[in-house]
Amino acid sequence: MFPPGFEGCVTQGCDEESFEMAKQLALSHPLIYASFGCHPKAAWSYDDDFEKTMLEYMEACGKKVVGFGEFGLDYSHPYFGPNEENRERQRQVFVRQLEVAISREMPLVIHSREAEDDTLRIMKAAVPQDWKVHLHSYRGSVSHMKEMLDEFHQLYVGMPGILTMNDDHAQELVRQCPLERMLVETDAPYLPVQGHWLSHPGLIPTITARVAELKGVELQRAATMLRENARSVYGF
User: C-alpha angle 65/170/216, rounded to 5°?
Assistant: First the structure.
């Protein structure tokens, strides 16, 4: 599954059901790292016990934990998304997790879906401009992406494998994002990569090659820059 030259990937525990698997993966393989947080769609479950459990998993993984998240805001659900009680709960949990992550000096893995204004407003109030941020599997507007890049000087935009598909918006995001502020990711196994029935981290070279085409740069230049960007955020 991992190609020659593979140097590592990050798995996520973003709800109580996925914490244990993330821990097992991180501790069982020298090149698998982990991040932990509460996905916004699980915000209803966040309380003191959830937070205590999450921090215990972080402690158990030690130096294999390289980020906090994914967490943030998601208003995309057709029924719950417009519900103000749900949105307020998500905002409260987002603010609390930002406090925890920043107090622990951890890079942020931010999930934002159809919540651009609230995401930016809350982050501007809570996150230092020089904080390391991974805007995870970004699918929002070009204008919001540029606002985030301007506001947070060490924010990197995660471009998922869907950019290899016939997806004009995903490809335009790549064209509009500076290469030096970009990450590539699979969000495996959820988002597809052209020509593959299963998405996994070993497909990063395929995504990188398409980024190079869209940016009009040599593959080696794109691969080197994207690798350095990942190292800047995650430290490996």
Answer: 95
